[in-house]
Amino acid sequence: MSNTIDTPDAPQQVIYVERAPEPKNGLAIVALILGVIGLVLGLVSLTGWLAIMAGFTATLLGLVAWRRKRKGRATAGKTAIMGTVAGLMAMVMGVIGMITLFTAVDDAVNGIDTSVSQETKNDTPAPVKEGAAFTHDGYKVAAGWKVASEQYGGLTIKHLKVTNVSHATDTGDTPMFTFSLWKGSENLAQIDASGNQLAKGETTKMDAYSDSSRTKVPAFDTIKVKDAF
Fold it and tell me: Does the pTM of the predicted model rise above 0.70?
């Protein structure tokens, strides 16, 4: 008969393995997407302010994502850098676009103001000397014109010749003036004159007429001219 000794089983050692956290790359991806969107928006001056906003957000998220990469909490370091760079470029393009837009608007407003000012000037009667050359509303009137009476009544202006010196359009512009005869503060008569369509540099004679029943040229001391319309 043999003797056996029962020994208790050795305790089993349990080993716990801690899983590494999943890398958080969402911010880097969003930064890159916003950076690209900002670059596209920066191509248009009108959306420059949107490019600045998208670029700023992309830059901020890209820097945060890069910080996570350095701490080992993310792996998309290159994506974070690309998003940051794209965001910075989008902001620069947005600023340039806004400057361009504001400059264009300012130029347009100044152009409108100049046009309105010029039209107001053209609509205001300006004194001219009979027979002397003068320029009005982009047309140069040659010297030698003279106020005269029509054979069957009314007044006219003879030898009235104009040259288009500033209007450059495809169809040409038509010169139309109104001459008024004054004696002191009294408006004695009004004579309308018009010519053919003129391209820049072309010259034409103008026909002048009035609805006055005068048969003789009145004694006037001042002639004024303005746009007919």
Answer: no
